[in-house]
Structures are given as structure tokens and as C-alpha cells.
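Following up on my earlier thread - several people asked me to post the actual chain instead of describing it. Fair enough. Here it is, all 157 residues.
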Amino acid sequence: MVRNNEVTRNDKGIFLQDADNASITGNSVSKSTEDGISLTVGTTGTLVANNESRKNGLDGIFVDSTSMNNTIRNNVLKQNRLFDAEDQSRGAGTAGTANTWTNNQGKTSDPPGLVTKKKGNDHHDQDDDNDDGPPRAHGRRHVEEGHEHGHGHGHDD
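Reply from S.P.:
Thanks for posting it. Predicted structure:
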């Protein structure tokens, strides 16, 4: 269980690998060089809830293609460099992933549909669009503990 931590300025924020039935709740993760919160290498049955993940170098929350049956809900994701939420799994879950994503606030996700934009005006988010440009999605590689996971996205330009 990873609960109620403030994680700032690390290479990796909160990183799970090959975990079953874990819980990541109530954390604040910011300014990681890579992803804020990562579920990788077959992580299953994990709850990721009520976290804030912002201003990370890659994704706010990243789920690789081998991590399934996880529940990601009630998180606030903002100003992350690549996507606020990215899920590479495929299945019968949210937006064609193998995981359940509900009530997560953010602006960008891959695939689309993992996050919803916050309603109304929030003066605290004034600088959301001033984060050094658009997400960078070409050719990114994600290397973790000797495992390489492609984050690159093919585009027909």
C-alpha cells in the first residue's frame, strides 16, 4: 500500500512492477523526470485512487500493455508533458483498455476517454496551457528495471 505521500522531483514517481492487488491512494506526485504513477510488467488488481499527479516529464499515470484489471479513479492529472493518462493495454475496459478508468480529471489521454476535463473556471489552473508546448509523442522509449517498454506512437504524417 502506497498512501498519503508527497513525491517530488524523482526520476520515477510511484512505480509498480509485477504487483497484485496493491493500492496507491491519496498521494501527491509532481515533477518526476518520467511518469508520475506507473503500473508495469503485469500489475493486476491494483487500485489507483484519489491521487494528484502533475508536471511530470512523461505521463501523469502510465499503464503498460501487460497490466490489466486495475481500477484507476478519482485522480487529478494536470500539466504532464506527454499525456495526463496513458494506458497501452487492450481489452473490454474503459476506452478499449483492459482497465477501468472512472472520474479522473485531466486534459489529455491515450487512448482518448480516460480523463474528463474539469467543469467551470478554476483560477488555480490558469497556467495549464503554458507548459512548454504540446505533448511529445514521437519515438519515446520507456526503460524500467531492465525492461524496455515502447511509448512511441506511430502516426501517418
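The chain is about 0% helix and 30% strand. That should answer part of your original question.
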